[in-house]
Sequence to fold (497 residues):
Amino acid sequence: MKTTFSRSGPRQTFGDFVCLVCKNFVSAETALSGVVNRNHCPYCLASRHLDLYAAGDRLSACKAQMRPIALTQKQTAKKYAQSGQGELMLVHLCTDCGKASLNRIAADDDLESVYRVFERSQRLEAHLKAALAQSGVSLLQADKQTFVHEQLWGRGQTRRTPTLSENLN
Amino acid sequence: MSTQTAEGQGVVFRKTLGHYSVQALTKEIPCVISSRLRKELVYPTAAASSLRHAVQSVRELEQVDPLAIGDEVRFLDAGDGSGMITEILPRRNKLSRQATVPGQHAFEQVIVANADQVIPVFAAASPIPKWGLLDRYLVATEAAGLPALICVTKIDLAGQNEALQATLAEYRRIGYRIQLVSTVSGEGLTELKQALAGRISVLVGKSGVGKTSLLNALQPGLGQRVKAVSQGKQGKGLHTTTQLEMFPLESGGAIVDTPGIRELSLWEVAGGDLALYFPEMRHLVGKCKFGLNCRHDEEPGCAIRTAVVNGGISPYRYQSYLKLRADS
Fold:
């Protein structure tokens, strides 16, 4: 745990970590991620099943890897937001116990990776889709491609070209 | 002229800075500890087989005080109403904690010796209960081999607190006895008196939870000093009781009142043994994939983690285990 200070006062956050999957060092600095709770790796988007009842409670004993499987929209709409314009959220699924959780996309998340999650989610197994729908999570379908693109790169912006390292991979 | 001294035996029931009050039959005898005994207990320097008692090694100090409340001692009666403690009889058990002075090594502080049960006292409200601290008390109690009776005071302030009831139900499920009391309404006092009768019980808990108020309610003649908690948002206790003391009960047995303990560092509880002091985890120790080498933290195939995920063990208790493990 570490204490960060914001306008709303001191806040307890969890510290930096090394990603279980890609082994990259991930900083929990709010100035980098734009979110208070850094809950997934910005490079490979993998997360870990650490919370049980509420975000940040760290009460889960499962501790298994959570993989990003789809995108959804935040359901609690802001007061003056237009309908259907909720924030993009990542849907993580625990590889051990199957628990799903919705997480905010951070400012420094790899947008290409996020988009690839959206593309892969179109081929998601039917039983997973049904299970998520039963728990009230509506996944973004192919007809939302323009919306996802705009959310990630902005309206009228083109998708950025892959970097040299990505091409080599 | 030689003075005649008689030997006696009693129980230490109060102590202050090297002075000990010993209860021997019906008499209270103020005693000091003999220098020889203090050296034996605190500085065992000479080898027993050494003819000249040459210093073989100097052991570091390990204890804050060699004598604890509840110790059975032999003493020499000086004849003037005072005495000198010459021997401490073997202890049946001891409830200890680690007393640390910043920058120095850890000392053992024996809170009480030869007790029959420990009563962790928590207020239902004001100050709000800290369940992590209760788990520390329970582990210390298990390590001492003593039974615990969780006492929740100020139950009149709790109202219909569902979260409190759910937490208490969890401790009942583990097998701990719980007594809800109120010194205002008198609720639960009769049952508590029955649980205390004929036993030496130790009241432990943080400041302001009502340990001394409970004692006064159980035995109105005592009239020990109590204070209300602070008026701030937190409602913290004001450290009213400042010394350990054992009080005999009219119903038989005795009760040891302790000053509020805000922190309790465990003494001689090894991290590897910690799960054994959680009754709900005890039967799972050794059943993990890595057997006794499992730390029950991130290891795959851990039986305890699986039990937490399946609901057999409270996630809050498991978190307490991990915190204690990190501290040990």
About this structure: Helices of chain B lie at 35-42, 131-143, 162-174, 189-196, 211-218, 279-282, 303-309, 315-327.
